Amino acid sequence: MANSYCHDEYCETTRREDTQESSDKKIVIGLYILFLIASTAIVWYGASIGVYIDPAVLN
């Protein structure tokens, strides 16, 4: 039991979340949020100058 802590016949695992996996998730979530912010800014800018997105074109 290399990844455990044992004391008085009680064992608890010491496995921690992989830091590489955690940072990869943070990067993906951060990029998604940046994409949403950029998309919103582009749509708002277009609406401010009179360019509106036609929902029929999105189908």
Task: Outline the structure in words.
The protein is of the alpha+beta class and 59 residues long. Helices cover 51% and strands 14% of the residues. It is built from one helix and two strands; from the N terminus they run ββα. It has one helix at residues 19-48, and strands spanning 4-7, 10-13. A two-stranded antiparallel ribbon has the order 1-2. The longest helix is centred in the middle third of the chain and has 30 residues, at 19-48. The radius of gyration is 24 Å and the shape is rod-shaped.
Amino-to-carboxy terminus distance: 56 Å
Write down the secondary-structure element order.
EEH
Number of helices: 1
How many runs of DSSP E, i.e. beta strands? 2
Q: Within the largest sheet, what's the order of strands?
A: 1-2
Shape: rod-shaped
Which percent bin holds the helix content?
40-55%
Descriptive tags:
59 residues, alpha+beta, 1 helix, 2 strands
What is this structure's SSE topology?
Layout (H helix, E strand, L loop, with lengths): L3 E4 L2 E4 L5 H30 L11
Antiparallel strand pairs: 1-2
Structure summarized in a few sentences:
With 59 residues, this protein is of the alpha+beta class. The protein contains 1 helix and 2 strands, in the order E-E-H. The longest helix is centred in the middle third of the chain and has 30 residues, at 19-48.
